[in-house]
Amino acid sequence: MGHGSGASAVSLLALSPKAEGLFHKVMLMSGTALSPGTVRDTAINGTWQLDARLHCRSFNSSELLECFKKQLRDEILAFEPSPYPDYDVFVPIVDGEDGLIPNDPETLSISRRKSPIMLGTTRDESALSMLLLNEKNVNMTDGMNVPVAEQLVDNLTQSYSGFINHRLIREGAMHEYVWTRVDPSLSVPSLNESILQMFSHFWFDAPTARLANYYSRQEVPVFLYSFDHVSENFETQRVFHGCDEMFLFQLERRFLETRKDRNWQLDKRVTELFAEMVVNFLKYEDPTPESARFPFNWTSSTTSELDFLSITDSPTVNVGFRWQAHVFWNRYVRHLDSVDVGNLQKIAFLDKQLGDYQLATWMLLFCALFFFAILVGLACYCTRKEADEDEL
User: Fold this and answer.
1) CA neighbours within 13 Å on the CB side: how many for 219?
2) So what's the pLDDT on residue 176?
3) How far apart are CA 162 and CA 45, in angstroms?
């Protein structure tokens, strides 16, 4: 069981051959092995980023190690972070056939034997990220403008090493989350909600839906959830990253402003329902067995419909878990990324060459007709001249 980066680690371990037989059930809260940036293919890029951040200017790993030994603890911890920390620099790497992570997470998710799983996300996963953006001189109060939204889309798509056709995917994301969301009737386009969706879809919702699909294909129990309960005791009306963990374990976050004068019984009911379903899943591989007598039946998800439970004080079973995220990032973007741009450029070049050849052919034909007309004219002129001389 894990939450956030912990869920990504649990998901990786559950798919690792080294952990074969150690996991009988898995619960992932707002994180999976397929989450962007969970692993790196090699440690090389991370090594050179470490060199740059410590200002070592090393030429090889040996020099970097010597520089690292001379650094004080405070100097190491006080390195200057990236202005757009979308991706963690120092993460696990794919360490080969005999390693803990023998292959990339996508391949492991498709090929490895699976265990029963419960996984899900909150409704507004990236709401806290938007608050952080507001603290970084990005004005979110009066409505995000188009240039800022385009910059956020550009940074998210261009800096992700998992993509090949970055420019194609950037254009697709611009269309999906920016250009089609601008209403000309508004003096200031409100893109806050769309950009929040983009971050939530990319980081959390799409990877969760894709992993659920891979598990469903092996016909193991897959229980998807969306934590949608909005507490009346929070000043914010968003169901942000970590809300499911807070209610399940009754945690209190220091950054939250809470109030106790409202309907706290609903919060308590959500905690009791969620906790009981988790316990039932661990005991019976079914969150809602008949013995529990719930008024709803949380069914296992299927690849075609992505059935999921909306967790509130009155849970309901729905279909189409984060469907926009699933269709765009798991289908359309992966299709764009598979396009061979090199061949497209070659086709465009050949098409241009063909056009040039066609133009040259028409020019030659025109010249041939022109000279043919001249020859015919000369022949007619000579014939007529001979006839006139004979008459004389």
Assistant:
1) 0
2) 94
3) 14
Residues of the chain falling short of pLDDT 70? 79-87, 131-143, 186-189, 253-262, 342-350, 384-392
**Tokens 């000309």 identify what position?**
184
pLDDT score of 143: 67
Predicted structure pTM score = 0.81
Can you give the pLDDT at residue 223?
Answer: 97
Instruction: Give pLDDT, residue 231.
Output: 85
What does DSSP assign to residue 141? S
| Distance in angstroms (rounded) separating the CA atoms of residues 185 and 313 | 38
- How far are the Cα atoms of 126, 151, 238, 241, 309 from residue 130, in angstroms, in the given order? 6, 14, 11, 11, 26
DSSP classification of residue 125: T
Reading the block at residue 27, the tokens are 């619960």
Query: To which residue do tokens 């956030």 refer?
Result: 4
pLDDT digits (tens, 9 = 90+) for 289-318: 999 999 999 999 988 889 999 999 999 999
- If you write DSSP's letter for every residue of 231-272 in order, what string do you get? -TTBSS----TTHHHHHHHT---TT--B-SSS-HHHHHHHHH
* Residue 263, both tokens: 């309907």
Task: Tell me which residue has tokens 């591989």.
Answer: 285
**Domain limits of the chain?**
117-339
In contact, 37 and 61? CB cutoff 8 Å:
no
Inter-residue contact 224 to 208 (CB < 8 Å): yes
CATH 3.40.50.1820 fits 117-339, yes or no: yes
The pLDDT, as a whole number, for residue 136 is 53
Per DSSP (E only), the strands in 159-236 are 222-227
Separation of alpha carbons 38 and 132, rounded Å: 21
3-state percent helix, strand, coil for the chain, nearest multiple of 5: 55, 5, 40
152: which residues sit within 8 A by CB, 6+ positions away?
A: 133, 195, 198
